Amino acid sequence: MKRGRSKKWLDWRGNIAWQCDALTREMTPPIPLREISLRCRVKEVVFQPLLVEAGLAIDDDGFVVFVSCDEEDKQEWASAFNNATQKGRFLPGRVRFSLAHTFFYDTKQQPFRNRLNETHYKEVNSLEAACNYGASQLLLPTRQLKSDTNKRDVLTTSCVVDLARKYRVSIECLLHRMTNLEDWTPKRGLLAYVHEVGDVYRIRAIAKSASVRGLFGNLSVDSDFKVAFGKAQYEEMKQHSSGSLEYELIYPRGVETGVAKCRLEYRRVATAPESFILALGVVDQPRTPTRREHPTKDFLIKLRQAIKEPGVGATDLETQNK
Asked: In terms of DSSP bridges, do strands 242-253 and 113-114 run parallel, antiparallel, or are they unpaired?
């Protein structure tokens, strides 16, 4: 039986969300990481070549954060972080992960004491997941992000690009954050970041609106785009850098199937390997397929298997449905 998160980590998650909101409440994006570091009692941020991306050390009554960078970038990054105007707004976001680690220290006593036992691998994994959550909350605060998503039609590729630029985060990071953001759009649809892996296009991040989670319940990270959305849509996206199209999507619905009329907008954001943003909106209320367009039983079995287990049955399923 699959177990959920323990009560301890759910409590920590709530505590992290509260601390991040308190730290960023009066700030505007992109979030000034230097201001946050001072509030987290970070005495110094050191940029230097490291074997890991970042690290945290306790120094008397504060912390020292180490961030990996190339030798030639040390001075530039340190200047950008300590600059009174920039305040670390335009630096790579690796600092955020180390800042999130400071939330797990008891700073009321000297020396600072880590509240967690990091000797067990499960504890380490849970700590890393909690820090990832905290890092995303620092760079994409709920209060500000919710305000931005409520003002615009988020189910467009242009809006996704604009939000990523505004908060100075990657599109993948933005979509991962939106999965934990309630009611980010009143519309029915989803956003996805698709990345080329070999000769397959895999979903790297996906955010579904609350009203379509049942509709696209089996669609998840690492799903094969061609299998999940169809060969015609795959070929269309491969041939053009951006565009939109409407089509009817046949999807598994319990033991039966459903048909949803969708509008898919796509935009290439990287090449070699290619990456795309997808914005899919459900145009009409999902319906039961007619007898003529109803998929064969064998097709449905392979479709469910391909979506649930990426790489399995990723052939031209549409041809097999004849």
From this structure: unpaired
